[in-house]
């Protein structure tokens, strides 16, 4: 199982934190855990630093990279040109 390259668990009503064991899937190139009820910090180990924001959207309780920090919202006018 450690050679898994793609994992899509989107829209599965998952809840709780992202299990740190997922960081052991070092061949994982694509992850989609969007549209669930996940909470806590997004892991910053191994391949998790490469996944984009759309891997996590729809989980109101998640925080950390790649989501913007609170300070980024103060410059919201820069997002639109």
- Biggest pleated-sheet summary: 3 strands, parallel
Tell me, rounded to a whole number, the average pLDDT: 82
Apparent shape: globular
N-C termini distance? 44 Å
Order of helices and strands: EEEEEH
Trace the largest sheet across and list its strands.
2-4-5
Nearest-angstrom radius of gyration?
14 Å
Helix content: under 10%
Strand content: 15-25%
Which keywords apply here?
81 residues, mainly beta, 5 strands, 5% helix
Present the secondary structure layout.
Layout: E1 6-8, E2 15-17, E3 30-32, E4 37-41, E5 61-63, H1 70-73
How would you characterize this protein structure?
- By secondary structure, the protein is mostly beta strands.
- The protein has one helix and five strands, in the order E-E-E-E-E-H.
- It has one helix spanning 70-73, and strands spanning 6-8, 15-17, 30-32, 37-41, 61-63.
- The strands form two sheets. A three-stranded parallel β-sheet has the order 2-4-5, with no helix packed on it.
- The radius of gyration is 14 Å and the shape is globular.
- The model is unreliable at 69-76 (pLDDT under 50).
């Amino acid at each position: 199982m450690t050679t898994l390259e793609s994992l899509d668990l989107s829209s599965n009503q998952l809840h709780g934190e992202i299990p740190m064991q997922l960081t052991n899937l070092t061949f994982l190139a694509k992850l989609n855990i969007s549209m669930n009820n996940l909470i806590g910090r997004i892991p910053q180990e191994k391949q998790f630093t490469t996944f984009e924001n759309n891997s996590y959207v729809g989980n109101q309780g998640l925080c950390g990279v790649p989501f913007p920090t609170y300070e980024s919202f103060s410059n919201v006018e820069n997002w639109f040109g």
